């Protein structure tokens, strides 16, 4: 039986070859496989009926969105998940499954994987298959301690993913946001904490999500942000956050006191990571994702179909 990811890849390759006029060699370089693999995919696409005289597939619209987003924002890869008629829970699960599949298939050159926090990243970890990846080390990109929503903290997700990979992980034994800048300086001077923060700067790839602090905000739900914080963030133009770091509609880090109390990777350091994989679900995050794209923080985007279409409308 043809899997959904294999079918998506066939449709994408067939579009590039038959509609965009790319050569097999060009497609092979773009996708990151050998030319014979592309040839086999094209042949298989004919055998299963994806390609006849024209390309027919219920996912052709999502493939168009993928190609347009890649071109518009200079991304290495985009996966648009078809979620028409899904409930919010089903959408998040579907995007999580796509993120897990993508990560599992693209770990070849990754030895140090950074992981952030949140419900969408947690869904990726939940959907990740059990396998042996002993050579991969998972590193939390920000702190995460406390009693509230422990299951979506970076430390917990690093641990859960390392169990599924049969690999190892580090732990950043601090809250993500501390009470004062003085406390932050004290904690960051501790040898174990400093060592994990240094690890976070040198990851080969990072798995993150993007939040909107103003709409359906997990930060607000678990108590990291109060009403006064939200009002202040709105006044300075914040549209989104990655790993507790806030940015404006141009993707620029905002000069807000809360940023000075975060223990974890900075946006500038994130931008320097070779491959940043963002997994996002929800149309309320359109402005947030757009800001992150303008800030050049992302290399790979895995996103639901509705939000993908809105991104192109609002660019």
Description:
This protein is an alpha/beta fold. The protein folds into two domains: 1-57, Winged helix-like DNA-binding domain superfamily/Winged helix DNA-binding domain (Arc Repressor Mutant, subunit A, Orthogonal Bundle); 67-314, Rossmann fold (3-Layer(aba) Sandwich), CATH 3.40.50. The protein contains 14 helices and nine strands. The chain has a seven-stranded parallel beta sheet with strand order 1-9-8-5-2-3-4, sandwiched between helices. A two-stranded antiparallel sheet has the order 6-7. Helix 6 links the parallel strand 2 and strand 3 (137-140). Helix 4 (60-73) crosses helix 14 (305-314) and helix 5 packs across helix 6. The longest helix has 18 residues, at 88-105. It starts with a helix and ends with a helix. Belongs to the SorC transcriptional regulatory family. InterPro entries: Cro/C1-type_HTH, Homeodomain-like_sf, NagB/RpiA_transferase-like, SorC_transcr_regulators, Sugar-bd_dom_put. It holds the Pfam family Sugar-bind.
Mean pLDDT: 91
- CATH topology of the largest domain, anyone? Rossmann fold
Highest-level CATH class of the largest domain = Alpha Beta
Fraction of residues in H or I helices: 40-55%
Main pleated sheet: 7 strands, parallel
Q: Report the count of strand segments.
A: 9
Strand content: 5-15%
């Amino acid at each position: 039986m043809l899997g959904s990811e294999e079918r998506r890849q066939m449709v994408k390759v067939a579009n590039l070859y038959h509609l965009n006029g790319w050569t097999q060699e060009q497609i092979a370089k773009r996708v990151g496989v050998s030319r014979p693999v592309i040839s086999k995919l094209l042949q298989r696409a004919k055998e299963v009926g994806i390609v006849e005289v024209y390309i027919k597939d219920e996912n052709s619209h999502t493939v168009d969105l993928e190609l347009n987003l890649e071109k518009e924002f200079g991304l290495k890869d985009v996966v648009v998940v078809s979620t028409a008629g899904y409930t919010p829970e089903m959408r998040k699960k579907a995007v999580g499954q796509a993120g897990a599949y993508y990560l599992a298939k693209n770990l070849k050159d990754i030895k140090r994987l950074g992981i952030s926090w949140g419900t969408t990243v947690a869904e990726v970890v939940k959907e990740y298959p059990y396998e042996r990846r002993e050579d991969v080390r998972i590193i939390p990109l920000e702190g995460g301690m406390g009693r509230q929503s422990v299951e979506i903290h970076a430390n917990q997700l690093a641990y859960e993913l390392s169990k599924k990979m049969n690999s190892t992980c580090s732990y950043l034994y601090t809250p993500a946001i501390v009470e004062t800048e003085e406390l932050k300086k004290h904690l960051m001077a501790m040898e174990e904490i400093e060592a994990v923060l240094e690890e976070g700067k040198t990851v080969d790839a990072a798995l993150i999500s993007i939040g909107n602090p103003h709409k359906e905000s997990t930060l607000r739900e678990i108590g990291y942000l109060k009403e006064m914080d939200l009002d202040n963030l709105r006044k300075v133009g914040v549209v989104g956050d990655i790993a507790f770091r806030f940015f404006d509609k141009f993707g620029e880090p905002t000069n807000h006191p809360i940023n000075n109390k975060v223990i974890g990777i900075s946006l500038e350091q994130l931008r320097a990571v070779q491959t940043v994989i963002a997994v996002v679900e929800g149309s309320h995050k359109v402005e947030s994702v757009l800001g992150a794209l303008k800030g050049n923080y992302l290399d790979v985007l895995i996103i639901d179909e509705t939000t993908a279409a809105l991104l192109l409308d609002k660019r």
